[in-house]
Amino acid sequence: MKLKSYITVKDILQRKHFEMIEVIAGKEGLNRLVKWVHVVEVTNIRNLLNGNELILSTGVAWKEKKEYFISVIEQLIDSSAAGLCIEIGTYTSSIPPEIIDVANEHKFPIILFHREVPFVEITQDIHSLLINHQYQMIADLEKYSQTLSKKLLTIDHYNEILKYIQHYLQVQVIIVFKNKDIQFIPNVLDQERKKLLQLVEKNENNQHLTANSYSIASIPIHLLGSNYAQLIITSNERSLTEFDQLILDRTATALAQLILRDLYVEEKSRAEEVEWLSRWLEGDQTEDDIHEYLAYQSSTIKPKGANVCICRLEIFQNFSNIDLTYLKLFYKSIFEQQGFTLFAIERKNSIIFIILNERNVSSWKKRMKEAIQRLKNSNPSMIDQHPMPFIGIGKYVTDLVNINRSYETALETIRIQERLSNSSDFYFYDDLHIYRLISLINRHLDLNEIVLEYLEPIIDYDKKYNGKLMQTLKTYLSCNGSKQETAKRLFIVRQTLYHRIQKLEKLLGEDFMNPEKRIAIEVMILSYEFLQSSKKLKHAEHEAY
């Protein structure tokens, strides 16, 4: 059985030579720790004590001088002595009531020997006890450390270590993590929890503190150069000792090792999962591999198709790991309610979701639009301070081995979105239509040259005269050549419109409304806007750089 980690005045009173004693004051302080024993027969003792000494005296120094006696008691109390044992008869016959009142007020024990006792034998006995106790505590500490080392090989959660130190020391254990998560071992009621948290806050910059009858000791748990958590023990039944602090130190070291191991395993597992999902996105996983992976994740996943959604965050570095984790959970929650299962990985400045559809194929797009609308309407708090992320959704594929095609088209959707002023209207690759063609032409041909072939006269005219021919042309085409509707949309009179149309006919040719040429011009207008947005994007990136 483990030896107690401390010796109290009450323990000393059970020793030899303490049979005929009387505790006349400070009975509530009998649990004070005893670290040494001194025989004191002088009145000026303040500088002779270090704290927790049990004092033996005949009282000769203050014989018949009450003021000296009171001064000695006050010095003992101020020096945190454990108690005072007085031999009655030789020099002291009684204890003044004032002395008893002061001792009771400070819970300072005063013990009377009612017969002559050998102080030398008492000090030898208690010093031997204390020294043997120190040796035994060293052995207990080593045994505790060995037990912790064995536990590290078998336990799965740090709670087992917290329970072990709590049971070993019989104290309240508190661990405060960097993310403000707090655990109590054993758990306590709300009122007691608040009281303990207030004491912990006061003890924030101290390793050891005694306040409001509570003794508190704490130690930081350092991981990878940062303060990961604070381990705290507290007791309102006894003062914590150096042994308690040593046990706390050993426990903190074990916790750091266990948590670091768990973080490593978690990171390795996450890295392996990211690598697997990345290979899936690149088209390097077989059908059997995919089904095996999904079965391992959940036996209930029965996908009827899938696509990829890319969520690109403009200021990715402003999001903490906690924010990104919350964002992924938030997206998963929203999409799961619409019948989708999500797998997420982070890549550069984006979160990439592989979205598996588990409901009717014909409704996947409708349900996904509803999910996106919910995302917009209930933006997470960490996004409130930033622009809404670009969301690009690739082609829907019924064969999961073709998820790379959806990924490529989701990337293309994001690329196009970044070049469109009304990007929020286009989340799906399937809805980009003509912009897909424009993007394709831009990658393989000189799109600017083709645009100028059709629209250069209009562009030059607007620059030279600050005109509005491009706006007029675009509106006129969108109104299918209706002059009345065009004038109405442009808020101009018909005569002004007629004048502009004449100018358009002169610059583009009178046949610009012929079907084939009209289609080409409409495509070139969209291409011109696409290119203009690209220039603005490059300029913004350059400015940011």
TrEMBL record:
Pfam families registered for this protein in UniProt: HTH_30 (PF13556), PucR (PF07905)
Gene3D superfamilies found in the cross-reference section: PucR C-terminal helix-turn-helix domain
Start and end residues of each PucR C-terminal helix-turn-helix domain: 469-524
Domain Purine catabolism PurC-like: 11-130
InterPro entries per the UniProt record, alphabetical: CdaR-like_regulators (IPR051448), PucR_C-HTH_dom (IPR025736), PucR_C-HTH_sf (IPR042070), PucR_dom (IPR012914)
Superkingdom to which the source organism belongs: Bacteria
Protein's UniProt name: PucR family transcriptional regulator
UniProt source species: Heyndrickxia oleronia
